[in-house]
């Protein structure tokens, strides 16, 4: 049910997807969905929460380098690789925030902030060590994450460049952004 909802919401948008449409995709009556989920809002929240939990767990499993330059490279490569094969989840996580209730929004925003803070800490450490030059770490964090997340909107495995090559190109752009 969640997989069908994820695909439909990514394709049509949250507002255009009804519980009836999700039920039809799964092959059950709409009323049957309510045995598993109380409402569509909860379903959206659970899809976003699962994505953020998976992201934070995968990131926590990495041994973070102490050197900010190496940490920035690791973060860049991780972010691109993690998101590159999750276009539906990324689309929903960024484009459907507006459809969350205030409570659900606050919960997802807190998870996003936890992830973003990891990059901000790398940038602050890099500035303190004299490796990076940037005006505002938080703004730079937002710009870098937006840039890196965009890869999944255009990258295709069968394309001209491999994911490793794309990571290298983006890493070079990230380094230039922070004047590394």
TrEMBL record:
The keyword DNA-binding applies. Residues 18-37 bind DNA. SUPFAM superfamilies: Homeodomain-like, Tetracyclin repressor-like, C-terminal domain. This is Transcriptional regulator, TetR family protein. PROSITE patterns: HTH_TETR_2 (PS50977). GO terms for molecular function: DNA-binding transcription factor activity; transcription cis-regulatory region binding. Gene3D superfamilies: Tetracycline Repressor, domain 2 (1.10.357.10). Keywords: DNA-binding, Transcription, Transcription regulation. Signal peptide: none annotated. The keyword DNA-binding applies.
